[in-house]
Amino acid sequence: MQKITIALIGQPNVGKTSLINYLSGAHLKVGNFTGVTIEKAQANLTYKDTFFEIIDLPGIYALEDFTMEEKVTKEFLETQHYDIILNVVDSTNLERNLALTSQILELHKKTVIALNMHDEAQKENIQIDTDLLSHILGVPCITTSATQKENQQKLLDLILRTHQQPFCPPKKFYSATIQNEIDDLILFLNNAQYQEIKQFIQENNPDYTNKNIAFLLLSQDKKIYHFLHDKPCYFELNNFLQQKLQNLRKNTQETSIKNIFALEAFAFAKGASQECIKQKNTSLLKTKKIDDLFLNKYLGIPIFLFFMFILFELTFFIGGYLQDSLENSMKILGEFSKNFIPNEDLASLIGDGIFGGVGAVISFLPLIVILYFGISLLEGTGYMARVAFLLDGIFHKFGLHGKSFIPLVTGFGCSVPAYMATRTLQNKNEKMITLFIIGFMSCSARLPIYVLFIGAFFPAKYAGLILFFIYIFGAIIALLMAKFLKLSIFKGSDEPFVMEMPKYRFPSYKIIWFSIYTKSLMYLKKAGTFILFGSVLIWFASQYPKNEVLQNTYEKKIKEVMSLQIPQEQKEKEIWYLENELQELLLEQSYSGKLGALIEPIFSPMHFDWRLSVSLLTGFAAKEVVVSTLGVLYALGDSQDETSQDLQSAIKNSISMPTAIAFIMFIIFYIPCFAATITFGRETNGFKSVFELFIFTSIVAYIIALLSFYATTYILFFI
C-alpha cells in the first residue's frame, strides 16, 4: 500500500477543518507543533489501496514569518516531508485567496487546488471556470463543498493522479519590471554555473531551476541567503544582485522588496480571478448593510458588549451550576475514599490531594465548554473579526491587540480558559503582554475573599460600590501594566491589523463541535496531569512533618473533655475548639506554616501576620482556599465561608483597616491559582515564563499593597 502525505494549507475561514473532517470521517489526532502552542490536526484515511496522511497547517494569509502561524507553516513547507500541497481556497472570495496561492506556487511542489464553498458561490451567482483557472495556474483545480460533500471522491482521485504523474512546473507570470530582472539574473546564473547553487538545489528541491533561484534571490528569501552567505560565490553574486534589487526599487518606486513582491502576488491574484469568474458577486451589499450596524462607531461596541453579556451570563449560570455539581461529586468521591481507605495518610493523599486537585481541574470544564461554544459561534458567523477591528485602535494605545479583549474579559470568570483564549493572538509580544496581565482581571474565585473582607470592614450599604471599585481598579492597572510591558520587556513593532472580514454565514455545527472537543481534550490532557502533581505537592507541604507528641497531647485533652460531666452541647463545642486549635498548630508547624513564618518579615511593613502569609501561600493552589485557611488559622474551623460573622469578627479584631486593604490589593494582583499558572506555562512553553510571571505579579502586588497600606493609614489619620 502506497502512502501519500498531504500538506493542507489555506487562509482562515476557508473550510479547511470541514474538508479534512469530511474526508477523514473525523478520525483526527490533535496536538501542538513542537515548541509552540499552535495547534495542528492530522487525519488519516485509506482510499483505493492508498494511505492518505493529511497535515492541517494553521490558517495564514501569506507565506511570511511575521506571525507564529506563518512561521510554523513556512518552516513545515520548507523543511518537512510531504508529497502534495492541497491548497483550499474560498470560492466566494477567490481574489483574496489566490494571493496566498501565488506564493505557494513558488515552492515548486506538486499542488492541487480545492475551490471550497462551491455551494455558497452558486447561491451568490459566482461562476468560476475551473478549467481556465487550472490552465492559468498550471496546477489542477476542482470545486468542493465540505458541507454538501461535493466532489470528495473526485478530489482524492485528482490527488492520486497528481501524485503518480511527474512533476510539472506551475505557471507563474510576473510584471514586466520583475520579469526583466529575473531574466537578467537567470542569464547571470547560467553563465556563472556556481556549484553552491547546484548544492542548494540538490539539498532543498531537485525540481528547482535557475528561474526559481532567481526569484528566491530577488525576493530576499532568508533560507537561500543564509545558505550562500559564507560561500565563495556570495561576493560576486551579491554585487550583481544588489544592482537588480536597486533596479526594482527604482522602477517600482517602492523601497521595500517585500512589499514589491506582496503587491505582485495581489496583482497576479486579481488578474487570475478576473479571468476565471464569469459572474460577479452581488452578495457583498448585504454584508455591507449588516456591517453598517455592527461596525458603527457609536453602536458597535455596545452591541458587542451585549452579546458578551449574554455569553458570560450563560457561561457562569449554566456552567457555574455544572461546575458546582462536578465539584461536589469530586468532594463526595474524596470523602468516600477517605472513609474507605483505613490508612489515614493514604486516605488524605487520595481524598484531599488527588481527588481535590483533579476535581479542581474538571470543575472548570463546563465553563470552558460553554465559553468556547459561544466564541466558536461568534467566530463561525464572521462576527468576531468585526469586534477585533472595533477594539484594535483603543487597545493598541496600551500595547495590546483588538483580539486581546476576549482573553481579558474571560479572565473575570476564570484565568484558565482566558490563558487558552490567547491562542487567537498572532503577534508574540502582544500575546505575551496579554498573558501577563490576565491575572489582574479578578476571577470569580477571588470573590469570596472580597466579600469576607468587605463585610468585615465596610458598612453593608457600600459593599456593592467597593466590590465594583475592586474589579475596575484591577482592570485599570492591567492596562497600565500592559503599557509598561510594551515599553520595557516586550518591545517591538505592533502587529498591523490584517484580518479578513468574512461574509456572515451560519456556522457548521460540526466545526463548532470539533473546536470544543479538541480544546477540552487538550485542556484535560495537559493541564490535568500537572495539576495532579501540584496538588499532591501542596497537600504534602500542608500535612508534613507530623507532630505525634502534639497530636497525642490533644487527643488526651479531647478524652478529658469527653469524660467531663457537662452538657453534651458544651462538650461538643469544647472538642470542636480543641480540634481546630490542633489543626492551627499542625499547620503552623508544617512546611507551609514554616514557609509562612519565613516570609512573614517580608509583609511586616503592611502588618501581615503569619496567618495572612500562609493564606496567601495556600491561595496559590486555589483562591477559594484562602477563606477556609483563615478559618482554620483563626481556630474557627475550615467550614467557615465568606459570610461567617465569627470569621469576619475574628479578622476585624486581629488586623487593622490598612492591613485589610493591603491584603485585598495583594489578592487582586498576585499570581493566579496553580491551575491557571500551569496553563500559563503551557501557553508560553516553559517554566522560565512561569517564574517571570511570579516575579512580575509579586512585585506589582507588593508595591500596590504597600502604597495602599500607607495611603489608607494616612487617610485614617486625618479622619
What labels would you give this structure?
elongated; single chain; 9 strands; 32 helices; 7-stranded mixed sheet; two-stranded antiparallel ribbon; 719 residues; alpha/beta
Written account of the structure:
By secondary structure, the chain is of the alpha/beta class. The strands form two sheets. Strands 2-3-4-1-5-6-8 form a seven-stranded mixed beta sheet, with helices on both faces. Strands 7-9 form a two-stranded antiparallel ribbon. The longest helix is centred in the middle third of the chain and has 41 residues, at 300-340. The radius of gyration is 31 Å and the shape is elongated.
Span between N and C termini?
86 Å
Give the proportion of residues in helices: 55-70%
Average pLDDT number: 79
* Shape verdict: elongated
Total of helices: 32
Order of adjacent strands in the largest pleated sheet: 2-3-4-1-5-6-8
How large, in whole angstroms, is the Cα Rg?
A: 31 Å
Largest sheet: 7 strands, mixed
Percentage of residues in DSSP E strands? 5-15%
Which consecutive residue ranges, at least 5 long each, have pLDDT under 50? 31-37
- According to DSSP, the number of beta strands is 9
Category from helices, strands and their pairing = alpha/beta
